[in-house]
Amino acid sequence: MSREFDSLLIFCVIIILMMNYEDTMKLIEKVATLGSIPGLDSIKELMKQLDNIQETFPVLHVAGTNGKGSTCYYMASILKEAGYKVGCFMTPDVYCYEDKFMVDGERITKEELARYYSITEDACQRMTKQGMAHPTLFEMEVAVAFLAFTAHCVDLVILECGMGGELDATNIICQPLQCIFTPIGLDHMAFLGDTISLIARTKAGIIKECADVILAPQQEEAYMEIKKQAEAKACTCTMVETDEIVHVRRTADGFLFDYGDYQNLQIHTQADYQLENAATAVLAMKRLNEKLGNITSEHIRAGLVKKTLFGRFDQISENPLIYLDGAHNEPAALRLSQTIENKFTNKTIVYIIGMLKDKACEKVLKQMAKHTSHIICMPTTGSRGLEAKELAGYARAYYSEIELAGNAKEAISMAKAAHPDVIICFGSLSQLKNIKKDLE
Hints:
Blueprint: H1 2-32, H2 41-49, E1 59-63, H3 68-81, E2 86-89, E3 101-103, E4 106-107, H4 110-129, H5 137-151, E5 156-160, E6 178-181, H6 189-192, H7 196-203, E7 212-215, H8 220-232, E8 237-239, E9 245-251, E10 254-259, E11 262-267, H9 274-292, H10 297-304, E12 312-317, E13 321-325, H11 330-343, E14 349-354, H12 361-368, E15 374-377, H13 388-395, E16 401-404, H14 408-417, E17 422-427, H15 429-439
Parallel strand pairs: 1-5, 1-6, 2-5, 6-7, 7-8, 13-17, 14-15, 14-17, 15-16
Antiparallel strand pairs: 2-3, 3-4, 9-10, 10-11, 12-13
Helix pairs in contact: 1-4, 2-5, 3-9, 3-10, 4-5, 7-8, 11-12, 14-15
């Protein structure tokens, strides 16, 4: 009788949680209006309310401007091949909100999300009753991630910083195994500083005593800042050297390459910039193996060959050729431009672009203008969304043929009507998702 009652109770709880998912989305929408507030006081109190569960996991902490998501994905894939259960917190989400919270390559369920947000909101309410401010959405997301990882009993956590480093909510971590830095460039300058050195200094604030510090290829100013902070905290500091990525061969659906001691590594992506992200993941795993001892070259090879994240120069159509790329700032636009230059010599190209208000739209447009004069501007939604008309205003300085689309479907139709060899869609990941949906 007791067992039957327990089963009925579990079923009822599941039904309630399913119904509460909509309420969870409303809560997320409401808390998002609090904006971003750098600092660690609030997240420290929130995690204290949750028994500081973040301290129970070995963590690989990842900061940088571009390439964080791909590098996290490669590392998670390699660790899974090595037999680890891996929790991965990454932003932004692409297909659905739960994309931010991954366990062994799978997003948590809607029911789980509702459950962990309920627990987190209870903790937030206890804080407000004590006269403290309600935590921000990003702070809540960090807490939800660790609740999910605790419930799933993960072995390792890969934790991606938000926009910052030193004052980022993810910096609640006291003793990460590794601090990994993807390429650092100019972005979020209002918060992080207006030079590479200042931004690197802020991001290097995640470095803790005696952690392994791993760097993707960096500009000299960024390298010197990170190295200085690493040495001050007795950390080993190792950087991927681009001249160590050798024997690069383009295949039908990606690249073969050698890096250091590893030969014939394969990645399924057509984006040149993913070679550096993959090499950064390999270096991190090589160093981690020196501590854990069971990550082999075969695990690395098998992990890299998995398909990469959505929106990283994805080909989604053959006729015409259509590619999606999440280049939304100047450094990312430079890397996308280099890929286009290497892959599409003497091809006619049309761009579809949608951007957010707080991005350097003009610099992105200028960087990409060398490959075409034809661009279609579409709006992005949400409080940070930029209207197509305003985006077109920035584009007029660099493009002679500018069209405005009301939505993704209209933008695709306009681009196809021009009969180009290639259509390249870039900018905000949210608008890329809509383009892919409309082509399916």
